[in-house]
Amino acid sequence: MRAVVFERYGEPAEVREVADPQPAEHGVVVRVEATGLCRSDWHGWQGHDPDIALPHVPGHELAGVVEAVGARVTGWRAGDRVTVPFVCACGSCPACAAGDQQVCERQTQPGFTHWGSFAHYVALDHADVNLVAVPDGMSYATAASLGCRFATAYRAVVRQGRVAAGEWVAVHGCGGVGLSAVMIAAAAGARVVAVDVSPGALELARRFGAAECVDASAAADPAEAVRDLTGGGAHLSLDALGAPATCAASVNGLRRRGRHVQVGLLPSPTGTTPVPMARAIALELELLGSHGMAAHSYPPMLELVRTGVLRPDLLVTATIGLDAAPAALAAMGTAPGAGVTVVEPWS
Ligand SMILES: NC(=O)c1ccc[n+]([C@@H]2O[C@H](COP(=O)([O-])OP(=O)(O)OC[C@H]3O[C@@H](n4cnc5c(N)ncnc54)[C@H](O)[C@@H]3O)[C@@H](O)[C@H]2O)c1
Ligand SMILES: [Zn+2]
Ligand SMILES: [Zn+2]
């Protein structure tokens, strides 16, 4: 098959022929019809993820058709249209037993722990635990977003963030995760303040329901701008980029007893960043993390998509072939944000 491969961190990837993957006993191989370009792929390429072994094929935000099925899989067959949470859970560890597959103790992740979906085919483990049927009529490009960023944003806003109608929600970084969060929070009846350095990203945020926008490249202090716009601070705030500046601004833009949800990955090898803990204490803030979303939690989100309340299809602003993927991956380091790019490996 053809796949995007990199041999060294941060050096150009290339498209080349590699061996087709084989399904594990409990897994499947999926023919990849669409796979989103997520900033986590860029982090992996930069060497920020200790799970990655070289050479490597990135890609984890995918949808496609089941091609081959392992002997112990009972719920899926060749020809099924599927997407998958990028955290593929084992189904049997204590976290999985508690229903928390998104933090499975023995998770695998396509594009991180093994070769991913910037390829014609990808292997996915524990198919009966992890696969999600793509609803009739949903395109593969839209379904792909449900594999990572849209679903991640849904859990971050709705479950971890416990958004409520009428609340102020600040979203720092309005790319794939952030724009999804803007749309989901607005649909929940929240008033959203979108923060980004890219005018194009802020324009999209407004289109997807943001009531207010802050240009972080122009504002002296984006957190102060959020506090001013929200009458004292947001109830809920997300760092949807993952940087010291956006994490701190998210925490500093909260009101008393507000909730911060860290979604963006911190780039350093240790993933650490300074957090204004004095403010967290004095204002009794909640500091939360959010990691993907388990397959069994998809139905309420899919129902909102089916009824048109949520429109992940609108997030896709560019569709490219496999040959253009290496340059698009590299451009994530420099280019301003403007929606979601989807790779269609067979186009
Ligand atoms: N926790 C999880 O489960 C999970 C899942 C998916 C992605 N992620 C992480 O979420 C983060 C976002 O991913 P993405 O694919 O949406 O990224 P993206 O590149 O699509 O979007 C990032 C956005 O941040 C904006 N930005 C840059 N500097 C900024 C600043 N100083 N202030 C405000 N905005 C700024 C960019 O213009 C862009 O619009 C990444 O770190 C990714 O690895 C985490
Ligand atoms: Zn992702
Ligand atoms: Zn598990």
TrEMBL record:
What cofactors does this protein use?
A: Zn(2+)
Does the record carry Transcription as a key word?
A: no
Name its pathway: Metabolic intermediate biosynthesis; 2-deoxystreptamine biosynthesis; 2-deoxystreptamine from D-glucose 6-phosphate: step 3/4
| Family the entry assigns | Belongs to the zinc-containing alcohol dehydrogenase family. DOIA dehydrogenase subfamily.
**Which transformation does this protein catalyse, written as a reaction?**
2-deoxy-scyllo-inosamine + NAD(+) = 3-amino-2,3-dideoxy-scyllo-inosose + NADH + H(+); 2-deoxy-scyllo-inosamine + NADP(+) = 3-amino-2,3-dideoxy-scyllo-inosose + NADPH + H(+)
Name the UniProt record assigns to this protein = 2-deoxy-scyllo-inosamine dehydrogenase
Provide this UniProt record's keywords sorted from A to Z.
Metal-binding, Oxidoreductase, Zinc
